[in-house]
Automatic annotation (TrEMBL):
InterPro entries linked to this entry: Metal_resp_DNA-bind_regulator (IPR052509), Tscrpt_reg_PadR_N (IPR005149), WH-like_DNA-bd_sf (IPR036388), WH_DNA-bd_sf (IPR036390)
Ranges in coiled-coil conformation: none
Stated name of the protein: PadR family transcriptional regulator
Organism: Micromonospora rubida
Domain (Transcription regulator PadR N-terminal) ranges: 15-86
Alphabetical list of Pfam families matching this protein: PadR
Lineage start: Bacteria, Bacillati, Actinomycetota, Actinomycetes, Micromonosporales
Length: 110
């Protein structure tokens, strides 16, 4: 199974989860995703996801000046984004539990 295909299906949820605790700018969010173990995540995928989530009304943005380079656009969860994170998180946990059960019932080991 290709990990990049699985990642495409859960990248929105992963980005929302990363932003739950702390706002971030594109590269910072990508770094945090990779540190969490999503090594396959690509730059373009993260930036595209941020644009899509913002356009869907799930994120807000603000700009922070930087003394060492260009200004950084920070993303933060708004109320709609938190609601989506809760709904998607429940769906993911249900799906993961079902898959764990299917794999365990068939003797597949991790």
């Amino acid at each position: 199974m290709d990990a990049t295909q699985l990642l495409k299906g859960v990248l929105d949820l992963a980005v929302l989860a990363v932003l739950r605790e702390e706002d971030g700018y594109g590269y910072d969010i990508m770094r945090r995703l990779r540190e969490a173990g999503l090594d396959e995540v690509g730059d373009a995928s993260v930036y595209g996801t941020l644009r899509r989530l913002f356009a869907a009304g799930l994120l807000t943005t603000y700009v922070v000046p930087s003394e060492s380079g260009p200004h950084r656009k920070y993303y933060s969860l708004n109320a709609a984004g938190r609601d989506q994170l809760t709904r998607s998180g429940k769906l993911w946990r249900s799906f993961a539990t079902t898959m764990d059960t299917l794999l365990d019932d068939r003797g597949v080991t991790a």
